[in-house]
Design brief:
11-stranded mixed beta sheet; two-stranded antiparallel ribbon; 13 strands; globular; AtzE family amidohydrolase; Amidase; Amidase_dom; Carboxybiuret_hydro_AtzE
Length: about 475
C-alpha cells in the first residue's frame, strides 16, 4: 500500500500500525510529493530526507518487534522554520539567523510528535521573524497558494498552510501571535488550531512576542488536528508560560453532539470590514449550527490596537541589537515596523496591558452565557501575491496590516480557536470557532460537526 496525496494522518497511522503500509513507504511518498510540487508551492526551506528515512525505518523495526509506535505511526509532518530542528540553524524566515549555529536539539513539540510516531520531513517557509500576514518572504520567495499559485498563502505560517493545503504533508506545525495559524488556514482551505495561550510548549522555538505567541497544528481534517494536539500536550518547565494542567485529550470527545452547546455569532466589529465571501462563510456555518444569537464583543477595535502596540514594542525589544548591527539584512517592511515599535512611548504599552486585563475579564463574562463564538478568520479570500491594498468598507487599506483584522482581538487574550475552511468557489475562506480558555475540546467538537455536515472541508488543491 502506498500513501495517497490526501490520505489523512489517522488513515496513515492506522495503515502503518496495522502492517498494511510501511512508515518508510509513507515517508517516501511524502518526499516524492514535495519533490514534485514544492518547486511551485515553495513551502519548504529545508527537506530532512535522510533523517526522515532513518526515523521511518526505526518505526518499521519497532512494529516488526511488536512494539507500540504511537498514535501518529509513520505520519509525515513538517514545521515552520522558527522551530528548532537538530542540525539546522533556526532561521525564523530571516537572513540574519542563517549565521546561527545549528540547533543541537529539536523543539519540544517536535520531540512529542516524534514520540507519538510521526516523521519530520522538513522545515517550512515563513514571513521574516513571524511579523507578516502575507506569506511573502524577501529572502526565500513567497510560499504559494495551492488553489491558485498567483495568490498569497497568508502569513506568517505561509509555508505550513501551503504544505498542508497542497497535500504535501497531512500535518504541519506553525505559530500564531496575531493570527498566523488562522490566516493561512483561511487562505489555503485547511483546518488550524490556535490553542489557549500557554497550552502547548514553545520551548526551543524562535519567539516574536512572548506574551502573545502560541504554537499549534494545521491539518486537512479535525481528527488529525486533535491527534496532533493531543500528542503535543503536557507541562514543560522550559517554557515559563506553559500550563501545569495535565493532559486533556480531545480526540475521544470530538464526535460528541453539539446540540447542547450555546453558540453565538460575534457581532459589531466582527461584521464590519469584510468582503461578501466572509459574510457568506459565517452565514453558512451559523445556519448549519442553528446559531441565531448575536453577541457584541466590547471594544474589539481597541483590543486590536492594543495588540499592535504590544506586538511592535516587544518585537522591537527582541530585535534591537540586530537592528543596530545588521539593519540592511532585514526585510525592509519588517525592519521599518520594528524601528517604529522601538519608539513607542512606555506609557502607551502600560495602557495597552491594563486594557488587556479589562478586555479579558469582559470576554470571560461573555463566556458565562455562551460556549462558542463564530467570527470571520479573514476579511477576504487570498489576495494576489504582491497586492498592496484592498478596499474594506469603502476605505483603501494596506493588505499586510489588515489581513488579521478579525484574528488579533482574539489571540490578544489567548482564547482557543479552530479555523475551519468553508469551500466557497473559486477559493476557500475560514471561519473562527472561538471557545473559552482551555476548552479546545469544544471548538474541535463544533469543527468536527461542521466537517461531518460538509459545511467545512479542505478542498483538493487545484493550483498544482
Amino acid at each position: 500500500m502506498t500513501s495517497k496525496p490526501e490520505m489523512t494522518a489517522a488513515e496513515i497511522a492506522k495503515a502503518v500500525a496495522g502492517g498494511k503500509m510501511s512508515a518508510l513507504d509513507a515517508t517516501e511518498a511524502a518526499l516524492a510529493r514535495i519533490k514534485q510540487h514544492d518547486g511551485i508551492l515553495n513551502s519548504f526551506t529545508d527537506v530532512t530526507a535522510d533523517r526522515a528515512r532513518a526515523k521511518a525505518r526505526a518505526i518499521d523495526a519497532d512494529i516488526a518487534a511488536g512494539k507500540d509506535v504511537g498514535p501518529l505511526a509513520g505520519v509525515p509532518f513538517a514545521v515552520k522554520n522558527l522551530f528548532d530542528v537538530a542540525g539546522l540553524p533556526t532561521r525564523a524566515g530571516s537572513k540574519i539567523n542563517r549565521d546561527r549555529a545549528p540547533a543541537s536539539r529539536d523543539a519540544t513539540l517536535i520531540e512529542r510528535m516524534e514520540a507519538a510516531g510521526a516523521v519530520l520531513v522538513g522545515a517550512l517557509n515563513m514571513g521574516e521573524y513571524a511579523y507578516d500576514f502575507t506569506g511573502e518572504n524577501v529572502h526565500d520567495g513567497p510560499s504559494r497558494n495551492p488553489h491558485d499559485t498567483t495568490r498569497m498563502t497568508g502569513g506568517s505560517s505561509g509555508g505550513s498552510g501551503s504544505a498542508v493545503g497542497g497535500a504535501l504533508v497531512p500535518i504541519a506545525l506553525g505559530s500564531d501571535t496575531n493570527g498566523s495559524i488562522r490566516v493561512p488556514s483561511s487562505f489555503c482551505g485547511i483546518f488550524g488550531l490556535k490553542p489557549t495561550y500557554g497550552r502547548l510548549s514553545r520551548a526551543r522555538s524562535f519567539p516574536f512576542v512572548a506574551s502573545l505567541d502560541h504554537l499549534g497544528p494545521f491539518a486537512r481534517s479535525v481528527a488529525d488536528l486533535a491527534l496532533a494536539y493531543d500528542a503535543m500536550q503536557g507541562p514543560d518547565a522550559e517554557d515559563s508560560a506553559c500550563t501545569t494542567r495535565g493532559l486533556e485529550p480531545t480526540l475521544p470527545l470530538i464526535a460528541n453532539p453539539v446540540s447542547d452547546l450555546r453558540i453565538a455569532i460575534a457581532g459589531g466589529y466582527f461584521q464590519k470590514n469584510v468582503f461578501p465571501e466572509a459574510i457568506e462563510a459565517v452565514s453558512r456555518v451559523a445556519r448549519a449550527l442553528g446559531a441565531t444569537k448575536v453577541v457584541d464583543i466590547p471594544e474589539a477595535a481597541r483590543a486590536r490596537a492594543a495588540a499592535y502596540v504590544i506586538s511592535t514594542t516587544e518585537g522591537a525589544s527582541l530585535h534591537l541589537d540586530r537592528l543596530r548591527q545588521r539593519a540592511n539584512d532585514f526585510d525592509p517592511a519588517v525592519r521599518d515596523r520594528l524601528i517604529a515599535g522601538a519608539m513607542v512611548p512606555a506609557a502607551l504599552v502600560d495602557r495597552a496591558q491594563k486594557f488587556r486585563r479589562w478586555y479579558r475579564a469582559e470576554l470571560a463574562e461573555i463566556f458565562r452565557s455562551v460556549d462558542v463564538l463564530l467570527a470571520p478568520a479573514t476579511p477576504c479570500t487570498a489576495p494576489k501575491l504582491g497586492q498592496v491594498n484592498f478596499n474594506l468598507d469603502g476605505v483603501e487599506l494596506p493588505v499586510r496590516a489588515n489581513i488579521g483584522i478579525h484574528t488579533q482581538p482574539i489571540s490578544f487574550i489567548g482564547l482557543p480557536v479552530v479555523a475551519v475552511p468553508v469551500p466557497l468557489e473559486p477559493l476557500p475562506i475560514g471561519v473562527q470557532i472561538i471557545a473559552a480558555p482551555w476548552r479546545e475540546d469544544i471548538a474541535l467538537r463544533v469543527a468536527h460537526a461542521l466537517e461531518k455536515m460538509g459545511v467545512a472541508a479542505a478542498p483538493s488543491p487545484r493550483g498544482i
